[in-house]
Amino acid sequence: MRLKDKVAIITGGARGIGEAIAKLFAKEGAKVMIIDLLDQGIEVADNINKGNGIAEYHKISVTDKTAVENCFASIHKKHGSIDILINNAGITRDRTLEKMSIEEWDAVIEVNLKGVFICTQTAAPYMKANKYGRIVSAASNVGLRGNFGQTNYAATKAGVIAMSKTWTMELGKYGITANAVAPGFTLTDMVAEIPEAHLEAIKASIPLKTAAQPIDIAYGYLYLASDEARFVSGICLTIDGGTAR
């Protein structure tokens, strides 16, 4: 088991890529702490526990600093460490530049950027005290190349990459690595409403001629969270089927 007895906090772990990460990490021996506002997290945790894994669901917002601090303190008190932080929680509010409202801009910045900052700032002291930590945050290939109608989303994902590189410099001497994962188009609930014809066009634009499944992205997180990547820090691992960027 590649994550045996590691305590892993996974934000946005109730569905999609986060759910795939939670299940894979539990299979690899981690004690999985799912952070989400969606009650689907209860079912994900229950299924992991029924499969002889260890999982908990904590219903809090990553943007609520006090709630995050209390939750992480409770996890640390119960399990003795916080070894891995997966900053996966994120939202979209797509609109072209001239039509995007301040509310749509602020909502995405609040979750995708501020939420990542709050969770990492809260987890870092526990990792520093233990001289060990793995921080892996959700970027996107959109953060590398931009995307039509996603000024807010692209800005947050580019910011996540920059923050990860900064944390590498600040936290490396404590045995903590910080990396980002940049998925390409992935078949999650967020894209379920896309018309079939448009979906096929997207797949055709990807060199591998198919879209990612959540598990394809989860394996990248597993590598960066494992001791196999102990000397890997400050990178953005792109998992997008070779999409031009």
UniProtKB/TrEMBL annotation:
EC number: 1.1.1.100
Gene3D superfamilies xrefs: NAD(P)-binding Rossmann-like Domain (3.40.50.720)
GO-annotated molecular function: 3-oxoacyl-[acyl-carrier-protein] reductase (NADPH) activity
Swiss-Prot/TrEMBL keywords: Oxidoreductase
SMART domains: PKS_KR
Keyword Oxidoreductase in record: yes
Domain Ketoreductase as annotated: residue spans: 6-184
Pfam families, A to Z: adh_short_C2
InterPro entries per record: KR_dom, NAD(P)-bd_dom_sf, SDR, SDR_fam
Domain of life: Bacteria
Similarity-based family: Belongs to the short-chain dehydrogenases/reductases (SDR) family.
Protein name: 3-oxoacyl-ACP reductase FabG
Organism this protein belongs to: Croceitalea vernalis
